[in-house]
Amino acid sequence: MSGSLTIVGLGPGAPELTTPAVSRALREATDLVGYETYLARVPMSGPEQQRHGSDNRVEIDRARHALTLAAEGRRVAVVSSGDPGVFAMAAAVFEAIEAGDARWRSLDIRVEPGVTAMLAAAAAAGAPLGSDFCAISLSDNLKSWATIERRLEAAARGDFVIALYNPASRARPHQLGAAFALLRKWKPADTVIVLAHAAGTPQCRLEVSSLAEGDTLAADMRTLVLVGSSRTRCVARADGSAWVYTPRSEEAVL
Ligand code: SAH
Questions:
Q1: Does 4 contact ligand 1 (Cβ within 6 A)?
Q2: d(CA 176, CA 17)
Q3: Residues of the chain scoring pLDDT < 50
Q4: Where are the domains of the chain?
Q5: Residue 224's pLDDT is what?
Q6: 84, 9 in Cβ contact below 8 A?
Q7: Which pLDDT does position 252 carry in this prediction?
Q8: Disulfide-capable partner of 164 in 72, 176, 202, 225 (CB 3.0 to 4.6 Å)?
């Protein structure tokens, strides 16, 4: 089959954080497939390029549509925000391939990485991911809340720094509070919390707080939450704000 499909990650928002390899795949594509909000971030590359926007919910249908276009010989780019392999379209494409038309397996399929929200948030805060960390999505669209609770508990018991994706949406306003309440059973109340809104964009806003006070902070669909390990700490800056970092070593720091 002559068609190709590249699943790209645009990065967190600022154009400079889109990699040159992703920009190239977008320029060369005959067809762009993705959530409309993400397609709107892609510069037009010419009058022939076709855009197939959809809403955010139908990932598998979107993946099948992209594969069908590629099988017709088109050069397709499937667009995600951040990294396409992190809670995003790349897994949906492989799921569609595994269950779908056997001929899709001979397509030229590639994944182009991007800067995921967790890394943009961490960089804005300092170096909170300096030691072992994990990432958990709080969305229970594709898994049960019981699974999320089990993983939060395991992460807390393991003393990982925890990045929480999808901390809240209009349909799920209470989940971040429920997650903090569960984490408070295992972690000290003064554990460092960072809420990063629109990380990796000019509108980036950080709130540094503690697990005890986290409930008073508002998260939305563009917020990434970092929950520190027992070693994560703040370094006061001259302007009254703080850098947040996790030492790489287990040994005591001054
Ligand atoms: N593939 C994306 C994640 C998709 S899940 C990535 O790698 O970043 C969507 C969640 O990502 C959002 O609810 C939010 O928690 C987080 N997110 C995406 N962009 C963000 C940004 N610029 N700042 C903070 N969080 C962001």
A1: no
A2: 28
A3: none
A4: 4-115, 118-245
A5: 98
A6: yes
A7: 67
A8: 225
**How high is the pLDDT of residue 108?**
97
Q: Is the CB of 200 under 6 A from ligand 1?
A: yes
Measured in angstroms, how far is the CA atom of residue 110 from the centroid of ligand 1?
22
Cβ–Cβ under 8 Å, residues 132 and 160: yes
Q: pTM of the prediction?
A: 0.96
- Residue 42's contacts (CB-CB under 8 Å, 6 or more residues apart) are 10, 26, 32, 79
- Assess whether the C-beta atom of 35 lies below 6 angstroms from ligand 1: no
Q: What is the pLDDT of residue 93?
A: 97
- Which superfamily does CATH assign the domain made up of 4-115 to? Tetrapyrrole methylase, N-terminal domain (3.40.1010.10)
CATH class of 118-245: alpha beta
Give the three-class secondary structure for 128.
Answer: coil
User: Is the CB of residue 112 less than 8 Å from the CB of residue 82?
Assistant: no
Rounded to the nearest whole angstrom, what is the distance from the C-alpha of residue 187 to the centroid of ligand 1? Answer: 25
Ligand 1 pocket, 121 CB below 6 A? yes
Q: Is the beta carbon of 199 within 6 A of some atom in ligand 1? A: yes
Give the closest residue to 10 by CA, choosing from 31, 45, 50, 37.
37
**Which tokens belong to 9?**
């990650």
CA of 222 to the centre of ligand 1 (A): 6
140-177 in b/e form (b: 16+ CB < 10 A) is: eeeeeeeebeeebeebbeebbbbbbbbbbeeebeebbb
